Amino acid sequence: MRTCLRLPLLFCLISSFSAAQSSDVHQLAREIFKQIVEMKTTESGAGSTPAVEAIAGRMKQAGYSGDDLFVGGPEPRKQNLVVRLRGRDHSAKAILLLAHLDVVEANREDWSPDLDPFKLTEKDGYYYGRGTQDVKEGAAMLAANMIRWKQEGWVPARDIILALTADEEGGGANGVAWLLKNHRDLIDAEYCLNTDAGDFDEINGKPFIVTISSAEKKYVAIKLETHNRGGHGSLPRKDNAIYQMATALQKVASYQFPVDLNDITREQLKREAELQTGERAADMKAIAANAKNMNAAARLSEDPRLNALLRTTCVATEIQGGHAENALPQHVKAVFNCRVLPQEDTQTILAAIKNAIADPQVEVGWETIDPHPYPPSPLNPALLKVIEEVVHRNNPDVHVMPSMEMGASDGKFLRGAGIPTYGVSGVFIEQSDTRSHGKDERLGIKEFDESVTFYDTLMKTLLK
Questions:
Q1: Segment 432-444, tens digit of pLDDT
Q2: Distance in angstroms (rounded) separating the CA atoms of residues 281 and 389
C-alpha cells in the first residue's frame, strides 16, 4: 500500500488487478493439479475418464461449449478432452497444446510411509504424488491457462487447441492415435507443443538448460531364437542351444550401429559444445561437422547418453531357455530393446543384427515392430527464438536448444501424421531428481507455479 501511494492511481489499480489475476490462476492450477493427481488414472484404476469429466466441467463453467468442447474416446474408461479457444485469424492453422492424463501404476507400499502416490502431498517445498512429473502438472497448468484466457477475454492471433488424452503410458486405447484417426479436424494444427517431452533442467535449484524436443527415437524389439533336439545332461554335445545363443549375444554386444546425425541432433551437439570445455567440446564440434570422425565418435560414445544421441542402439533385456536342470536345452530366446533413429528404416536394423550374428542357425525376427515412420520435426527457428526470449526474461543465462528424445511420447503419432511437434515441458526439474514412474515422484511447488506463468507468457508472445 505504501508503494501504491507513490505511483499514479491508475497504474496502481492495474498492477493490483494483474497480480490478483495471476494469484487466481495459480490457485486454480493447484486445485486442478490436486484434483487429478488424486484420481487413480492408471490402467488398473479408473482410466482417464474421471479426470476428463472433472476438467471438462471446469471448462463449461468458464464458457467453453458446443464445437469448442469435445469429450470422446474408444471406450468409456478411455475418454479424451479437446478444447478450442477461438482466435482472430480463422484461416490460420491452430497451435495444439498436449498432455496425457493417464499415469503408470504405483503401489502404496513402494513409497515412503508418509506418502500416498494418489494423494497430493505438500512437503518441504515439493508436491508429491504419481503424475507430478509425468505429466499431470502439464495437464493442470494448460487447463488453468485455457480457463484464464477464456475468462479474461483474450483473443489470440489464431486458435489454440488443448488436448488431454488417454493411454500414453502404454494402454491399448491411445488417445492421440484415436483422435487422429477419428477426429483429425479437432486437433489439426500447424504444430504442437507437447508438455510430455523436452527438458527444463536446473542444477542445485538454478535453471540451467532448456531442450526443445523436435524428434524421438522409435521403440522396436528384436528376438533371437536357437533350437536344438536336446538330450540327456549326461551326454553333452557341441551343438548346445545355450552356447549358440551366447555366441550370438556376444556378437551383437560387440556390434555398434554407425553414427547417423539428423538436423536436430547436429544442432543439439553444436549448442551443447558451447557448454563444454577441452576435448569434450572439441569432439562435439567435430562430430557435428563430420559424422565420420571416428576418433571423436569413439570418445563421445563412452557416455551412454551421447552414444544414444549419435546412433541407433539395441541392448539385450530378456533371456529364457532350457526346460530342466538335467536336460540339454531345446530352445533359447533372447530379446533386444532397440531405439531407432527417426530417419532410419527399421528393416535395415533387423538386417544389421542378422549380419552381425552371421549364423543361419540363429533365428532373428521381430518381437515388437512399429512399421510407421516418425520423421523429425523440422527446425523452427522462429518458435525457438520466442521460447528463448520468454525463458530469458527470468533466466537470462539458461541455454535453449533443440533436442532428440531417447524415450517416447505421443509426439510420434502427430509427427507421423504430418503435424510437427515440439516438446516444451515448461517446468524446471532438478537434473539429478527425475522421479517419473518411480518412488516418491515429486515436483517443486515454486517450479509448478512458474510453469503456469511461463505458458501464459509464451502463448501471448507467440500469438499476440
A1: 999 999 999 999 9
A2: 25
